[in-house]
Amino acid sequence: MNSLNPKLFDKDVERIPSRDGFGEGLVLAGEENKDVVAICADVTESARVQAFKDKFPERFIEAGVAEQNMAALASGMAAEGKIPFMTSYAVFSPGRNWEQIRTTICYNNRPVKIIGSHAGISVGPDGATHQALEDIALTRALPNMVVLSPCDAIEAKKATLAMVKERKPCYMRLSREKVPVITTENTPFKIGKAQVFREGNPSAGSTSSLQASSGRFADATIIATGQMVYLGLLAAKELEESNISVRVINVSTIKPLDMEAVIKAAEETGGIVTVEEHQVFGGLGSAVAEVVTQYYPVPMKIIGINDHFGESGICRFNLVKEQFWEIYLRYFCTNFRGNPLPVCLKKP
Amino acid sequence: MALSAQDIQNLEEKANVIRQDIIKMLLQAGSGHSAGPLGMADVLTALYFQILKHNPKKPDWKDRDRLVLSNGHICPVLYVSLAHAGYFPVSELQTLRKLRSRLQGHPHRESLPGLEITSGPLGSGLSQACGMALVGLMDESSWRVICLMSDGEQDEGNTWEAVMFAGKNKLHNLTALIDRNNIQIDGFTEDVMPLEPLKEKYEAFGWHVLEIDGHNFESIIGVFSEAKAIFEKPVLIIAHTIPGKGVDFMENDFKWHGVPPGITDIPGEPPKNEQAKIALQELRTLQGKIKSEHE
């Protein structure tokens, strides 16, 4: 995609936490719409609500460390015409207050915007208690809910503004760490639409007769969400040097999932690898598999946290894990090549 | 505005009809809660026929008072009151808990006109009422928020998060009412999880607390009027009620908390086939005070 950050693969690529993009977007949303209010559960600075609080003190509500009250309170405010953004760490919201979100926001169908910061293992030193690895599964299972997972700060800002216009309950997961800026102001963003960040071409060097006759557009597709999109792009770039062409899709709306983009990827590239900072159960991979198995079955690999909790550690620990994942990504993409059967499901 | 003896009598008669309809709809539904709805019939009657500023023809009228039912399981009394107030046909009450009915087992806001919230899971109604009241104050609106809670749901942590929030923000346009009937499903509240001293607890959280007899119309109407005059704090009304009020064998008996008439034989109580008939007879005769009943 032409509109991506031209310095994407530079060593000094700009790195900004996605929560910063949200904070910036929230102020813009407040300027655009007087009904926007922000509620925060005692993490105003780290969840990046401080700028909104400074600019619109009369529209900022401190809920204290009480996420259950925050959710139902937001529902009540939405009932009276406000557009509440309720913010905490994802472990606590939608974790601690899931039932209040289910009943008073989703079943009650109130357009509350739930912002869960510090999602994923990249939270690092705080350890497993603060690393939300289940939030996508929790929110995706709720009727009426829109689930967003932006890939960088710029997309988080756009998603924040788009949520104001979405008359439904929304959940957006954000990360704590600084992550490479992938997109630009010009990159298209629309709720419900996945973006193909890298189209991929059929491998020039391929000699597989199966592939030659398959008319494939690329050898595999990486479908990623959040900061893992950057890993996907890195893996695809490495693979290109080995004449393996990979499509990379950024799924910033996990629900409603862009089924068309997923089916097209299955059809045109014949294999899909998903990657997310989330349990492999119920997250992006599950959402993609629900579409692939029902509408266009192709071999798939789901990369994520495999049924365990995270752990405390400096970010280097997590980086090792990320690098491991990138190798994983490359491995699986390579093994889809010309393989109609999921032999790629063996571990490297 | 002082009420005449005739006004009070009219309300008492209305509440009696509402109780009869509760028994009929529960019998038809075959499941649901009996004790709470019967116990709260007088409060709901007073609200919908005297206290609330509302318009059944325009359920979304922006200046209406908001009645938030937090303990959704007593919805039979809310449904019957709404129907008699004119929000939907009384005949629809017989569809309670049936497939495709607008009268869900616990209230679903989008299904039925007149509902302010969806409720059932306990402890979050007061939070929603706080959200509404906060916007009311932000926008300088004249309407008030009335939140009905059970005493059992005072066990919920969420309730106390909301109590703290309302106290902190001095939500004086919010009046909460606890149906203090002393029972919950597993037994008496003070056995299951003691709540007392309830009044002092709320006062410690920054609330103004009033206590009434929840079956005395003058008290009910008077206390909501008094609540309006409190400008610096949210108000809690502890309404002492008799669960199962009006039906002798149901009164003060936690076994009738979550059971409808006509389904279960309970030792020492009328056989299941007789329960609804006896209950209706008692209501019609005001528990035997009227002797001309010929059934």
Automatic annotation (TrEMBL), chain A:
Supply the CDD domains for this chain.
TPP_PYR_DXS_TK_like
SUPFAM superfamilies given for it? Thiamin diphosphate-binding fold (THDP-binding), TK C-terminal domain-like
Q: Which cofactor does it need?
A: thiamine diphosphate
On the tree of life, the source organism's domain of life is Bacteria
Report the InterPro entries cross-referenced here: PDH/Transketolase, THDP-binding, Transketo_C/PFOR_II, Transketolase-like_Pyr-bd, Transketolase_BS, Transketolase_C
UniProtKB keywords = Thiamine pyrophosphate, Transferase
Record-annotated Transketolase-like pyrimidine-binding domain positions:
16-181
In its UniProt record, a GO molecular function of this protein is:
transferase activity
Classification via SMART domains: Transket_pyr (SM00861)
What Pfam families does this protein's entry cite?
Transket_pyr, Transketolase_C
Protein family: Belongs to the transketolase family.
The protein here is known as Transketolase, central region
Q: What is the native source organism of this protein?
A: Candidatus Daviesbacteria bacterium GW2011_GWA2_42_7
Highest classification ranks of the organism: Bacteria, Candidatus Daviesiibacteriota
TrEMBL record, chain B:
Q: Which UniProt keywords apply?
A: Coiled coil, Thiamine pyrophosphate
Annotated CDD domains: TPP_TK (cd02012)
Q: Which InterPro entries match?
A: THDP-binding, Transketolase_N
Q: Which Pfam families does UniProt cross-reference here?
A: Transketolase_N
The prosthetic group or cofactor this protein requires is: thiamine diphosphate
| Residue ranges of coiled coil | 1-28
Where the record annotates domain Transketolase N-terminal, the positions are 14-266
**Protein family:** Belongs to the transketolase family.
Q: What is the protein name for this chain?
A: Transketolase domain protein
Q: What is the lineage of its organism?
A: Bacteria, Candidatus Daviesiibacteriota
